[in-house]
Write a structure and sequence with these properties.
Layout lengths: L1 H7 L5 E7 L3 H8 L4 H10 L2 E5 L2 E7 H19 L6 H9 L13 H5 L20 H12 L2 E5 L6 H15 L4 E6 L15 H8 L1 H10 L2 H9 L3 E5 L11 E5 L7 H8 L7 E6 L12 H9 L5 E5 L9 H11 L1
Parallel strand pairs: 4-8, 4-9, 5-6, 5-7, 7-8
Antiparallel strand pairs: 1-3, 2-3
Length: about 325
């Protein structure tokens, strides 16, 4: 087969496309029993399918590679949205000429957001987070309809968890390609430089709350794999300077510890087809004598087109009844 493949098409006529895979299960589903689909793709379409380092590689004539790319991305989109596909369905989508093939670029963002809608939740470990209070429902609605969302309020109201859930959902549906999670590197008077270890050792414990949300919504193994593939990035806010994020879902957590300059820097990083969520508690800032950039940004931007803001209160605390009473006591 390889001799015929090379004889029909010279090296200059071949192209290669790479698609990141999020799990071994995705690779096994696309390759089929005993790599049956790999052989069929090569025989029917002269496209060579292989996998290396968590990346699916398609190599062959451009038209054939483009067609297989679209079909495979449609299959992956269904799988990542929680749909369990039978082997016969996958085979039909790969090879049935009667199946409608639509380029991902031709789909609107609104179409992708409407799929598998469960009150804004994301399927995670067999469950879908849903709103428990009116404020949480407003938050989920804003996460679906706005490009930039601010959420402020006390701990335990689900600000970060629901934002990460919406981000994972968007990633699985294919409406974004990357998930970026960040926090300002100020915490109760401590600084990263005083922590032991290299940069990753310093950063990972500090960003543990974000990892906890990801691990709960997916799995530790899936989270690690997506980080290795650079599909998920978790980094301090200072590392955002000079960058532009496109086709991404970006979350700034603990934003009460971001200065006004840092907040402006973060918000001006947002590129095309990017959603951003900024969460924090303005009553818990650790900035010494500096006005929080979160409160300032909500005042400046909360009412402009494409931006939404929601404020949580003590009655929205879902962590425990004790935490709710503690929050109420400190508000007096």
């Amino acid at each position: 087969m390889s001799l015929l493949f090379l004889a029909c098409y010279g090296p200059s006529e071949l192209m290669e496309h790479r698609i990141p895979l999020l799990s071994l299960e995705e690779e096994q589903s696309l390759f089929g029993p005993h790599d049956r689909y790999v052989k069929q793709v090569a025989r029917r379409h002269q496209v060579r399918m292989s996998s290396r380092g968590g990346t699916l590689r398609l190599k062959g004539p451009q038209d054939s590679v483009d067609m297989m790319q679209i079909r495979i991305e449609q299959i992956l989109e269904l799988m990542r949205s929680g749909r369990e596909l039978e082997a016969t369905e996958i085979e039909e989508m790969l090879f049935d000429q009667g199946v409608e093939v639509q380029s991902p670029s031709s789909k609107s963002r609104g179409d992708s957001r409407g799929k598998n809608d469960q009150r804004g939740g994301v399927r995670a470990s067999g469950k879908w987070p849903t709103a428990r209070t009116e404020a949480q429902q407003r938050y989920l609605d804003l996460l679906r309809t706005k490009d930039l969302v601010f959420s402020s309020g006390p701990a335990g109201t689900g600000k970060t968890y629901l934002a990460v859930a919406a981000a994972v959902r968007a990633l699985r549906e294919g409406s974004v390609k990357r998930l970026v999670l960040t926090r300002p590197a100020v915490e109760a008077g401590e600084h990263l430089g005083f922590l032991p270890g290299d940069l990753e050792d310093k950063v990972d414990p500090y960003l543990r709350p974000l990892f906890d949300s990801l691990n709960d919504l997916m799995s530790p193994a899936a989270t690690r794999r997506m980080r290795e593939l650079d599909i998920i990035e978790v980094a301090p806010l200072a590392f955002m300077r000079g960058r532009t994020f496109s086709d991404s879902f970006v979350i700034l957590d603990e934003a009460q510890n971001a200065t006004r300059v840092q907040m402006k820097m973060f918000l001006t990083r947002l590129g095309e087809n990017t959603k951003a969520v900024v969460t924090g508690d303005v009553s818990q800032t650790d900035l010494p004598g500096t006005k929080s950039g979160l409160k300032d940004a909500i005042r400046r931007l909360g009412s402009i087109e494409g931006v939404g803001a929601v404020e949580f209160a003590a009655q929205d605390v879902q962590r425990s009844s004790l935490v709710a009473r503690i929050v109420q006591a400190y508000d007096i």
